[in-house]
Structures are given as C-alpha cells and as structure tokens.
Design brief:
By secondary structure, this protein is α+β, with helices and mostly antiparallel strands. The protein has helices at residues 25-28, 36-41, 44-52, 86-94, 167-170, 227-235; strands at 2-8, 11-18, 21-24, 60-62, 67-69, 78-81, 105-107, 113-114, 120-122, 129-130, 133-139, 155-162, 165-166, 186-194, 205-210, 213-219, 245-247, 269-274, 278-286. The chain folds into 2 domains: 2-69, no CATH class; 78-286, Fumarylacetoacetate hydrolase, domain 2 (Alpha-Beta Complex). The longest helix is centred in the N-terminal third of the chain and has 9 residues, at 44-52. The termini are far apart.
Length: 289
C-alpha cells in the first residue's frame, strides 16, 4: 500500500495511491484520519481498514491533480545515521575522516522536512550544499528495547529521502545537526510504501541524479549497520513512536567526495530514487532573504 499526504483545493488530506488515483481516507471512511501519523498511531486496525478500501466504492481524486506533501510532516523524531555504507566510508577515509566502528546518529530537525517535489534552498550563508540519497524507515509502533531479530515488526514502511547537507556548517560540530537541518533540506516521499509490499529492504537499488547525470548508485545491501541493527541500537536508548523517521545512510558518490568536489548550485535539479519506492525531485533555488 502506498500512503500519501496531499494538498488539493485548499485542503490537506491523506489516502492511498491505486494506479493513477488517490483513495481519500476520511472521505471514504469517516473512521480514517486525514493525517498519516494519526493513522499509524491508530494501529493495525486502522491500517487494515485503509487497505480494505475498494477503489470502485471509495472517494478518489486523480493523482495528477494534487500536490504531494511529505507523508509524515510532523514526526516526533527525524534521526539519521552517518557514514553507513561501506563504499561511502571508504571515500570518507580517503578524504581523511576517521570512520568509527559504532553507529553514529544525529538529528535532522523536523522543521527541515520538505515535500517530495518542493524547492530546496541554497543557503544565503553557504555555497557548500550537497546531496545524499537515503532509504527512510517509518516506525509504525511505539517501541523500546527491540532486538534486531524483532525489528521488522515495528516498521510501518519505507520512502525516499534526500539528506541535503550544508557541508561547512555540518563540519563545525561533531553532532552535524545544524548543517543537516536547514529549512527545506529534508524532502521525503513521494509516499510511504508499507512494509508488506517490500520483499527485502536490504535489496533495493538507490540512485541519485543531478541534472540527469548519475552521481550515486548502490544497493541498500551495502549498509554497514543494517536497518534492524539500527532499530535495536536506538531503542536501547529511547522510545520510538509511530511516524518517527530513520534515515539509514547514503551510498558513495556525494558531491564533496568527487575530484574536484561538485556541490550544488542554484538551478540544479536533484532526483533521488529507490527501486520499488518511487522518486523525489527537487530544484535548488536561492534562499529567499
């Protein structure tokens, strides 16, 4: 099931994509919310109701008539793991960065979340904007102390993320948080593909293009710490909530690691795609000041 948040005719709602239409949840079943975070908080019962909606007997809108929004615009947490692909770790080490053995997590502040096709700002305070295609995991259940062997049971689904990074600001601090959290620098989507529709989240091809040129391409199987290990690590320390987002690392080929570095500029169009999950695409524009 592909879960979407969307804007149409002055209204924000949520639904599921079936072919070229969206089945609107609250218009089709008053028990279903128009907010995907609330849908996940409602548990398996609400998800089953959403899945059971018959497109022929439901309220639908054409997919092409809406503006897609970030599927979860207001998570309690947006966490990301650093240097989590073997080839990306190798290019980081070649550039003089020491790669730790442990998982290294940072926050992307939720205010950075952007629509899947929204413009991304080139900051007025920096010209060091970089791209990072990532597989984003959406948590589906409130959970703590989840062993890796059970971690898949707490996953609602997956989507495409681009962890845009302002490199000079990220390098100012070991936490990297500010450089990872500029407004508009967290586009997500285009929808949440539920876990039952993904055979193996560690066997998906990630690709990123800048102006049509392939820059990143690697399987999610290239992770150092897999998704289940990531969930086990995080829930040893904190409670994860329905709708929380985990960005699981980027492959090699980031702009700062190229020779010479090839960072983003105004007018560039960046497309991030993941096999089976769709794509997001963002134009780089000067930050309004």
């Amino acid at each position: 099931m592909k879960l979407v948040s969307y804007f149409r005719r002055g209204t924000v709602s949520a639904g599921k994509v079936v072919d070229d239409v969206i089945v609107d949840f609250p218009a089709s079943d008053p028990a279903l919310p128009g907010d995907l975070r609330l849908l996940l908080e409602g548990g398996q019962g609400l998800l089953d109701r959403a899945r059971d909606l018959d497109v022929k007997r439901s309220a639908t809108v054409p997919l092409k008539s809406v503006m897609l929004l970030a599927p979860i615009p207001n998570p309690s947490k947006f966490l990301a793991i650093g240097t989590n692909y073997k080839k990306h770790a190798a290019e980081a080490e070649a550039a003089g960065f020491k790669v730790p053995n442990a998982q290294v997590w940072f926050n992307k502040q939720v205010s950075c979340i952007n629509a899947p096709f929204g413009d991304v700002h080139l900051p007025s305070v920096s010209d060091k904007l970089d791209y990072e295609v990532e597989l984003c995991v959406v948590i589906g259940k409130r959970c703590r102390h989840v062993p890796a062997s059970d971690a898949r049971s707490v996953i609602a689904g997956y989507m495409v993320a681009n962890d845009f990074t302002v490199r000079d600001w990220a390098n100012r601090s070991p936490t990297m948080t500010i450089g990872k959290s500029f407004d508009t620098h967290g586009p997500l989507g285009p929808w949440i593909t539920t876990d039952d529709d993904v055979a193996d989240p560690h066997d998906l091809m990630l690709r990123l293009f800048v102006n049509g040129e392939l820059r990143q391409e690697e399987s999610s199987g290239g992770m150092i710490h897999d998704i289940y290990q990531q969930i086990a690590e995080l829930t040893a320390a904190m409670t994860l909530e329905p709708g929380d987002l985990l960005s699981t690392g980027t492959p090699s080929g980031v702009g700062i690691a190229l020779t010479p570095p090839r960072l983003l500029k105004a007018g560039d169009v960046v497309r991030a795609e993941i096999e089976g999950l769709g794509h997001i695409e963002n134009r780089i524009v000067p930050e309004p000041v």
